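About this split. The held-out portion is used to measure sequence recovery: a designer receives only the structure tokens and must propose an amino acid at every position. Recovery is the fraction of positions where the proposal matches the reference. Here is one held-out target exactly as it appears in the evaluation file.
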């Protein structure tokens, strides 16, 4: 049974990792029932090292000359120019590609309008599965288009129940084709192996908290720096390591330098392996404006780290039950976030039984997002 994945991406967001883990799960547990392939639209997968580790994975290049690395990127306008270039150069090629290869299923992530426009015009033997990545912006063009194409979709899969409920409430898709299938975030063996790798030039041996993510407005890092700055002004001893790159990195570093916080706040850039840093941290903090579901909080929970998160939609507010498997604070409430950090440090230092139970509950929650559980749920809803 042939399953093709469509997931053209400009930057390293979480969705491509979800695609790779989905392929790993189907390849590993299906006993060769599924033959998985990636459509490499504009050379986006060429530097994705994880795909080299998957046996029998086929990669089809839709273009020989189109390359995201040579297209405009950075900011809303440039990204839209890139999308239009990819659209006009890919839509006809994808049509003939699907007619030629006729996969049983096409799982559609990102730049979904290209395959969905084709689906609305032509008939294919292939069954189209729309995978909603993140909390969708339901503007009127998207809403009308999704409603129009919904009758020809085989399935719609959402990463959280809250997203599924939203789409059902808006009556965009028929109830019988929409299901929640959790992202395959946790690769147990891989995480356990990577967390043991020694960190080179580790300047933070212990006693630090950690935050991981793209340095963008969505992640709300200026709020986090403000929280840390406030704690330092109160003479509270704290160090934070922030891993990730993005368009706000320079501004964030300027904030650190201007306020002389370079001994407490470390912007350490993108890291291929975050698990070794994460495993040695005191706890993890997320201040995002939205997540769906929030890969890194689940990775932290799997490593039995206490997670403090904003109560943003959709992932954290669904995954974290306050004081049960982590802690939530009201989004952009600086004082509540400060108090959560202080209280968490006090509980950890006092070896409170409640913290031990929260860590155990967090681990149980994270196990719902393993690649094996994804395989079971995917097969259940697709076949």
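Reference sequence for scoring:
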């Amino acid at each position: 049974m042939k399953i093709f994945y469509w997931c053209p991406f400009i930057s390293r967001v979480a969705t491509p990792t979800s695609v790779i883990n989905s392929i790993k799960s189907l390849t590993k547990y299906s006993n060769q029932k599924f033959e998985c392939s990636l459509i490499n639209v504009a050379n986006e997968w060429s530097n994705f090292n994880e795909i080299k580790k998957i046996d029998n994975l086929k990669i089809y290049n839709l273009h020989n000359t189109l390359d995201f690395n040579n297209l405009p990127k950075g900011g809303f306008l440039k990204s839209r120019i890139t999308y239009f270039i990819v659209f006009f150069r890919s839509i006809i090629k994808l049509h003939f590609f699907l007619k030629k290869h006729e996969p049983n299923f096409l799982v559609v992530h990102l730049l979904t309008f290209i395959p969905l426009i084709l689906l609305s015009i032509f008939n294919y033997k292939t069954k189209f599965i729309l995978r909603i990545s993140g909390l969708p912006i339901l503007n009127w063009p998207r809403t009308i288009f999704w409603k129009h194409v919904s009758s020809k979709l085989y399935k719609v899969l959402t990463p959280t129940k809250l997203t599924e409920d939203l789409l059902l409430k808006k009556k965009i898709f028929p109830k019988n084709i929409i299901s929640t299938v959790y992202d395959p975030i946790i690769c147990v063996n891989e995480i356990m192996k990577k967390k043991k790798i020694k960190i080179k030039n580790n300047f933070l041996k212990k006693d630090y908290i950690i935050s991981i993510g793209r340095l963008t407005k969505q992640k709300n890092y200026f709020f986090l720096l403000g929280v840390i700055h406030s704690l330092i002004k109160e003479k509270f001893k704290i160090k934070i390591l922030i891993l990730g790159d993005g368009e706000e990195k320079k501004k964030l570093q300027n904030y650190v330098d201007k306020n002389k916080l370079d001994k407490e706040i470390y912007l350490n850039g993108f890291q291929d392996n975050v698990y070794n840093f994460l495993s040695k941290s005191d706890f993890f903090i997320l201040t995002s404006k939205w997540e769906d579901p929030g890969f890194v909080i689940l990775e932290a929970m799997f490593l039995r780290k206490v997670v403090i998160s904003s109560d943003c939609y959709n992932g954290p507010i669904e995954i974290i039950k306050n004081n049960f498997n982590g802690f939530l604070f009201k989004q952009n409430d600086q004082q509540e976030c400060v108090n959560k950090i202080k209280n968490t440090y006090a509980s950890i230092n006092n070896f409170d039984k409640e913290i031990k139970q929260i860590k155990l509950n967090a681990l149980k929650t994270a196990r719902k997002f393993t690649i094996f559980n994804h395989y079971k749920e995917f097969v259940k809803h697709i076949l």
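Annotator remark: The mean pLDDT is 92.
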